[in-house]
Amino acid sequence: TFTMGSSLDVPVNSLGVTPRALQLLFQLIDARREELAVAVVITYLEIYLEDVVDLLAPRAAAITIREDGAGNTGVIGAHQQRVSGVADIMECLRIGARARRTASTLMNTSSSRSHSILSVTTTCAPRSGGPGCVGTMHFVDLAGSERAKQTQHVGTRLREAA
User: 3-class secondary structure for the chain?
Assistant: First the structure.
């Protein structure tokens, strides 16, 4: 979680992979704003044991993962949040981090017990007309994987780590 950069209140000089990549994305967007119309939408999901939870709308209806006839996998029911810059995304990361399941272990006082997936979809279209493009980046933060022997996990913590 620290390396990915989706933890709370991290100093600017300790930003993880996700914030750094998103800063670069918006630098590139800002450099081409006059020639491109750009929209950025994110979803932020948690996978805990076998459940999928929307970290931006945790009390929302159930989320399902489906595969269509062409073999494309999609998430049904996830909240899509339009963002206009890094500050918007960082606020969404903070909201999601507060909703995410964590627990104390012998090795880490705040170990993530779930996986999280931040999906960032960018849609671009030339202002002069013509074909546009769509791209999606997925940032995956895996649950804490401390060894059960070292953490002395039992019960729920052991099931989470498996």
Answer: CCCCCCCCCCCHHHCCHHHHHHHHHHHHHHHCCCCEEEEEEEEEEEEECCEEEECCCCCCCCCEEEECCCCCEEEECCCCEEECCHHHHHHHHHHHHHHCCEECCCCCCCEECCEEEEEEEEEEEECCCCCCEEEEEEEEECCCCCCHHHHCCCHHHHHHHC
pLDDT reported for residue 2: 60
Q: Residue 157 — pLDDT band, cuts 50, 70, 90? A: very low
- Mean pLDDT within 65-85: 89
* Cut 0.85: pTM above it: no
Q: Given the structure tokens 């800002």, which residue do they identify?
A: 30
Report residue 7: phi and psi, to 5°. Answer: -90, 170
- Quickly tell me which residue has 């945790």 as its tokens: 58
C-beta separation of 114 from 26 below 8 A: no
Query: What are the pLDDT digits (tens) for 99-121?
Result: 876 545 544 444 566 888 999 99
User: How far apart (Å, rounded) are the C-alpha atoms in residues 135 and 113?
Assistant: 29
